[in-house]
Amino acid sequence: MKSETSKKSLKSFKRFGIFAALPLAVFALVLIVPFLRGIFLTFTNWDGFEFDSFVGLDNYVLSVQDEAFWSAMTMTFGYVIASLILVNLVGFGLALLVTIPMRAANVYRTFFFVPNLIGGVILGLIWQFIFGEALPSISKAFSLPIFNDNWLLSPTTAFWAMVIVTVWQMGGYMMIIYVTGLMSIEKDVLEAAIIDGASALRTLLSIKIPLMASAFTISMFLTIRNSFMAYDLNLALTGGGPYRTTELISLHVFKEAFGFGNFATGQSQAVMMFLVIAAAALTQVVLSKRAEVQR
Amino acid sequence: MIKKWLAVATAAGLTIALSACAADADSDTSSAPASSGDSAACESVTEVTWLNTIKIEIRDQFLGAVDEYNASQECYEIVVLDYPQGEPFFSVVTPLYESEQAPVVMTALQELPDMADRVMDWTGSDLAALAAPGSLDGANIGGKQVGIPVTAEAFGLLYNKAVLDEAGVDPTAIQSRADLEEAFQAVEATGRSAVHFSGLWWSLGAHFSNIYHTTAAEDLEGKLTVLDGLVDETYSLMDDPKFIEWLDTFDLMKEYSIDSASIADTDYDQGVENLATGEVGFWFMGNWAEPNLLQTTPEGSFGVMPMPTGANAGDYGNDSISVGVPFYIMIDETQSTEGERAGAIDFLSWLLTTPEGQARWAGPIEEDGMNFIPMYEGFTVSPSTYMSQDIAAYIAGGKTLEWMNSYYPAGLQDVYGYEGGQPYYDGVVDRAGYAEVLEGAWVGAEKSWR
Q1: Do strands B144-145 and B140-141 pair parallel, antiparallel, or not at all (unpaired)?
Q2: Residue B446 near chain A (CB below 8 Å)
Q3: Is pLDDT above 70 for B9?
Q4: Do B139 and B123 form a contact (C-beta atoms < 8 A)?
Q5: Nearest chain A Cα to B443, which residue?
Q6: Measured between CB atoms, does B419 come within 8 Å of chain A?
Q7: Is residue A179 packed enough to be buried (19+ CB in 10 Å), middle (13-18) or exposed (0-12)?
Q8: B14-51 pLDDT, tens per residue?
Q9: Which domains are assigned to chain A?
Q10: Which of A213, A278, B109, B127 is the most buried (most CB within 10 A)?
Q11: Chain B: nearest CA to A36, how far in angstroms?
Q12: Which domains, and CATH codes, for chain B?
């Protein structure tokens, strides 16, 4: 009996080995090992090339004392909150629109999804032109004072410019997730609601949204994660400017390490950034899971 | 010291008329290593990597020089590693070192102290011996010669000669800040804007800020003492009359600047357009912009003049332009083989001592040259553009100021530009706030000059 169990476990271990060993090894090599090494380096005087002594928590103390780190962190939180709300509102709104039975629904879906296929750097450059040249020209031609000045050259408008481009880029992606959520709601429930005389709004609030709460969990998780880690758009659109006021945390960490040559401090700020993102994402998932309904 | 090397640079390359060093140059050239030639001398081809930090404007010319050298001999092959323009030096170099693929040849300036342990000591080498005296100082880190100069660059007020002629302004007659304002007014009287004052972070952060640091005292030691004070947090900029005068100049530039000048990254192109087409008479920039200006207006003449900050004629610095070495050439010692290092030196010797190499190094852009101002003895080729001749005249007259920005630690010019210069440029902070940012940038910095 005992030997049969061990045979079984050996067999399942073999099967596991065949299918999972290689991907796991790759995962460990490219993710776990560098991650642990990164944490290790924060306790040394690493200069980007090598280290020769351990410095305890000095790098973390320096990171905490770095005012620019905290202003980047604050800016990032603002950006995450604004993106979280607007991206999901727009994504969900578009999803509701493109699930209305109509002939060209698929064309619209594709149309709204396309911005997501453009890389962040190119997107940044395109929008740099739009905010810097196109909108001011249109604005002057039609006397619309709102876009007279280049939005990227003043701190508040540059922040909103980043949010607008983020919404434009991510809205379509979240729309697809919401569309899947809406489509997965079984027809009988909706028919029952109609027979019971529920209005469209009541159906949306009391039937559709609760039944597709998992789509919200996924979309919000993705938005939070993407916004916290935003780098390419930040670099290409504003470069952290004007006056380093729109520098998000990833760009700040990059500049700290590679621009100023403070590699160990930059690395410890990256570790702190990881902890913050992990905490925020976990909290969100736990809260959203509670809202999900089981049928 | 700087005057001495500049004089030699002038003699060696800029004005052939000043041929004081010609005799020395000939003998030195002959002692320099000759370019390796026939295939019989080499058993195999050695690849030598060069991290391409050469400016994008002359990238094709540089690659042309590499091709010509590679075709000229069969011992070495120079392989150019692409360098993404605008990326910080460390972001490219540290991963290469980490993956044991360090480039053999690199160029840098403010990162030299960080690289000192990893690169070859040029002391006693033939090429270092040919370098103009004093031009090596900027790359001497604690007695180790970590690099040799690429070229000299100059910045100051660029001007469009046609516009100044029309306005009746003689740039050499501008001796003080008041004279400059009069010149601005004279240009405005012709219906143009006076000046394009760039809000580019690097222009404000490295170059315009240098105008203060290099006029803060009359000798190098005095200028470095100011930096000492800033690092030690004992120096108050707002109590320095030279700093106040520099701010007055900043304000003057702002007041007369054309509206289209801004802090946007695209401002450089706007500046080129404004000066080249005569929209403005002046632009605060450096001689690297000359090829761009000539591309826009090929028949134009663009010169460079000092940026006078002093109120009175005769104040220190009013009559001089900032001249310095923008990059030094380093050769890796930790990951390269002896053969690779020999190849690197062979290529550099070819560039700097043979007629073909010199034509590539200092020849005009339109003839596939890189238009570098030669920093080595024995150059028979020299840049001949209008601005080069202007610079030559300042150098020959000893009217040059040090690039104190080469003493800025890595990243400091970003703080100077992004967090100090641009907010002040846009009127978001006042003078005291600006001074505070500049002072704060030095706290905790290493005194690499001591």
Answers
A1: antiparallel
A2: no
A3: no
A4: no
A5: A66
A6: yes
A7: buried
A8: 443 333 333 333 333 333 344 444 445 688 999 999 99
A9: 64-291 (1.10.3720.10)
A10: B109
A11: 16
A12: 18-152+326-381 (3.40.190.10), 153-323+402-442 (3.40.190.10)
